[in-house]
Amino acid sequence: MDLLKFDNSFAKLGDEFFTRLSPTGLPNPFPVHINQSAAALLGISTQADTEAILSNWLSGWCSGNTLPQGSDSLAMIYSGHQFGGYSPELGDGRGLLLGEAKGPTGKWDVHLKGSGKTPYSRFGDGRAVLRSTIREYLCSEAMHALGVSTTRALSIFSGEETVQRERPEKAAMLIRLARSHIRFGSFEYFHHTQKMACVKKLAEHVIESHFPELKGSANQYLEMFRCSVHRTAKLIAQWQSVGFAHGVMNTDNMSIIGETMDYGPFGFMDNYNPDFICNHSDTSGRYSFKKQPAVGLWNCNALANALTSLVPTEQLIAVLKEYKPLFIQTLLELHRLKLGLQTSNTNDQSLIDELLKILEDNQIDYTIFFRRLCFYNKTKDGRKILENLFIHRDQLDQWMQKYQQRLSSETISPSDRTVKMASVNPKYIFRNYMAEIAIRKAEDEKDYTEISRMLKLLQSPYDEHPDCEEYAKNPPKWSGQLSVSCSS
């Protein structure tokens, strides 16, 4: 039974863009988890279609053992700058693009991650492990619920295969959904191999698929680049606003349409620290939290270089100059919402900067502070709970005086402001220790219930969830010993 109709428009570009091959399936597969929210994107109800969802049809293609009708599985080729150095040939080393499936909200790329060796696997085995798939599965859904542009996750399947990492681990497969899997590095590969006709062909495909309003216009390639630059600037502002660090902002991990993709050694900040490095492999701090905005621009510059056969350099440079002011304005607007400010004031940026410095000085948890700020004026307990976070309470008092004065210029009522603030300041984020709890239960006990519990929590992070209150508190001390790297 096939519930989905597949196509693969990328496959029509030609053999220079990919290697066509079939996945290597997992032996004796079983579902670890299926995401009902993502299934709905494809027009599948996992409640109404329970038997079909758990049938050989789904188990087959989500574990790489069969291919859905109409799909055309292929490993995409691309290159990219990794930690600032150019790698001339990368490509899908452990994943295959199965094709596009149409759902109620349009077409979605369906990508199988962990599907075995490809020509781009280098020295790897082409497999994903249960640990990494759980991390991506939960974090991509958490990011979506936070309003951050991201790929989605449909399912995790595992089986009886064991693979070697730092230790033996269970192999697993993730079905990733995305509007596009084309990366900055896709354009870089064809530019640096002097295949300029392929650069043009790829750009036309992106325009046709994602920016059809640009098709045929005199400056369509320039405007495509502008869309990518603008979406990247806004995406990284979203990351900064929720305290998220990607960890590996290589150009091959940057989506041409501005989606967060390739979740590896990511991390949400606990205590506010602009120097936060979430990736143990990032010894130079190239991708630290505070450097993400600048790296985003650096990556856009690499993309611009790859488009010089289509667009004059001076025009590309002019668009690159739009990145910084757009990022600053977007982040300022997001911070205003977090503070409950509905209007703009010329002093807002300094008010925000002063607050972030106070959070840094007092080692305050970024998420917990903003959540408690929502209820600061509601009761005396609300004030006390916020004040108890601080070592230097006088710094908070001084800042609160300025903040209260700023609020006096707003027309919204305090009660309405509390509601609005609580709708943009999450109570729950996906902290690394939470991932570790779910991973340990899954690996050590074959207990996948914590994945279900966390998914429900992270898909509604602004709600109270009294049964999960422990995940709204400061992380346990042992969480500081956790380390994630590029192998994560």
Structure description:
The chain is an alpha+beta fold. Among the domains are: 6-178, no CATH class; 339-422, no CATH class. Helix content is 40%, strand content 14%. The strands form four sheets. Strands 1, 3, 7, 8, 9, 10 and 11 form a seven-stranded antiparallel β-sheet that branches. A two-stranded antiparallel sheet has the order 2-4. β7 and β8 form a beta hairpin. The model has no long low-confidence stretch (mean pLDDT 94).
Provide the descriptors you would attach to this structure in a database record.
488 residues; alpha+beta; seven-stranded antiparallel beta sheet; two-stranded antiparallel sheet; 17 helices; 13 strands; 14% strand
Give the topology, please:
Layout: E1 6-7, E2 18-20, E3 30-34, H1 36-41, H2 50-53, H3 56-62, E4 74-76, E5 80-82, E6 85-87, E7 95-103, E8 106-113, E9 128-129, H4 130-145, E10 152-164, E11 168-178, H5 184-192, H6 196-210, H7 220-242, E12 244-245, E13 267-268, H8 292-306, H9 313-320, H10 323-338, H11 348-361, H12 366-373, H13 380-387, H14 393-407, H15 414-422, H16 432-445, H17 449-458
Antiparallel strand pairs: 1-7, 2-4, 3-10, 5-6, 7-8, 8-11, 9-11, 10-11, 12-13
